[in-house]
Specification:
SH3 type barrels, 6-stranded antiparallel beta barrel, Elongation Factor Tu (Ef-tu), domain 3, 12 strands, mainly beta, single chain
Amino acid sequence: MTASLIAVGRVAKPHGVRGELKVDLYWEGSTSLLEVDRVVLAFAQGPLHTRLVESVRPTPRYQLLKVAGIDDLTEAGRWRGAEIRVARAVLPPLEAGAYYLADLVGARVVSARGELGVVVEVRPYPTVDTIVIEDATGRRHEQPLVEPWLTRVDAENGVVELGGVEGFLD
């Protein structure tokens, strides 16, 4: 399940005339952009673009990211909606039992009923993170990652255990 890149946010919009990117972080309080010297910008479809970080300025709602090669408002505007990813290797080590949400993609999802499917996506919302589970028929279900539904996560072995399926959203 381990990905070499971890998505930390998305470009909300350009900021100012110098080409800064206003980054909406997926996890409030994350300091990951302050700890890296390179980021990867990526759209859902298309190539990855690695850029050197020139500066990062935290604001109450966003982080303002300036990267090499994006030097004006017009060029910054082209990156609206791009995901910002960082190399896993440069992030601080995780505590025992902790995991990155990206580690759940590809994990098997099980419950007392048996195998439910596979995690195909993680969706961070302002109030709760969810996983999107694809079942054997190809249908997708969204499940919040909170009690009482979430029983256990074993990211190392790629297993998410749910206490029940009440609340499954199609």
